[in-house]
Design goal:
single chain; 275 residues; alpha/beta; eleven-stranded mixed β-sheet; 29% strand
Length: 275
């Protein structure tokens, strides 16, 4: 994980405005390979193992493949089974993943390549993702689901200065320049208005879309893959401007200040009283 990311993280339990502090045990090239985040408010700690952050509110159960998982990093396209089992936490904490019809596993390009399997068209999918997000250069952050790990690596190569944040178990073991990865609970552990673009799934529900909107900065875009009529209705109700809607891909932009109200809200766990 990029060490600079700590400036934008909030406690997964307490939510904004409670930021996290970082205790790093292994940092190379400003990237945290081993360490932990801590919340000064609730005193909970969130580990970083093999460059992958576990930002789920406690109690935290084991992740997919944890029976013999070493926590080490692997190169993009390694094809690990854990990548194929990833899920994205959606509305009410439900999981949307490659095994769910219309889930994010279908990929932005619709190729259906599983997470961790680069495939021959990963570069084309990354290019389409970059075009949909409308981000041509850094600095800044974009958020993508774990099933888009290969597109994420390509996106980081295409857009100079962008940090691609992969959310979901599919990001575990991903080692790529310009990419950070963590798993989270029902809320995104990011401050309001700090993300330039975000990719979400059409089946995630209004709770997760609202989280995506909350962290999106004015002028930024949300890309909904496998868009449904419910997603289109939510976009209209949120006051977003539709940029494109074709082939199941819905692209909407958050208007600049004064053009429309923001409707996102924190979807994390309830705050734990300070001891």
């Amino acid at each position: 994980m990029n060490a600079v990311l700590v400036d934008h993280l909030v406690c997964p339990r307490c939510g904004p405005p409670n930021g996290l502090v970082l205790l790093a045990h292994d940092v190379r090239d400003r990237r945290v390979h081993e360490g932990e985040f801590g919340c000064p408010n609730c005193r909970d700690r969130f580990p970083v193992v093999g460059g992958f952050g576990d930002l789920r509110p406690p109690p935290r159960g084991p992740g997919p493949g944890d029976d013999g998982h070493s926590g080490g990093e692997v190169a993009v396209g390694g094809g690990e089974e854990e990548g194929r089992e990833e899920g994205v936490v959606g509305d009410e904490g439900g999981v949307v993943g490659p095994g769910v019809p219309g889930g994010v596993g279908s990929g932005v390009g619709g190729g259906g390549a599983p997470a961790g399997d680069a495939g021959g068209d990963a570069g084309a999918r990354a290019l389409r993702m970059a075009a949909a997000l409308g981000v041509t250069q850094g600095p800044g952050m974009v958020v993508v689901p774990g099933s888009c790990r290969d597109e994420a690596a390509g996106l980081a190569r295409l857009v100079r200065g962008i940090e691609v944040v992969v959310v979901g178990w599919g990001g575990r073991g991903l080692a790529a320049d310009g990419v950070s990865a963590f798993v989270t609970g029902p809320g995104l552990p990011l401050r309001d208005g700090v993300v330039r673009g975000v990719v979400a799934d059409g089946g995630s529900g209004v709770g997760w879309w609202g989280e995506c909107l909350r962290v999106l900065m004015p002028g930024g875009r949300i890309v909904i893959v496998g868009a449904t009529d419910a997603a289109r209705e939510w976009v209209r109700g949120a006051g977003l401007a539709t940029v494109a809607d074709e082939a199941g891909l819905l692209v909407a932009a958050l208007p600049l200040p004064g053009a429309a109200p923001r409707m996102g809200r924190w979807m994390g766990a309830a705050e734990k009283p300070r001891p």
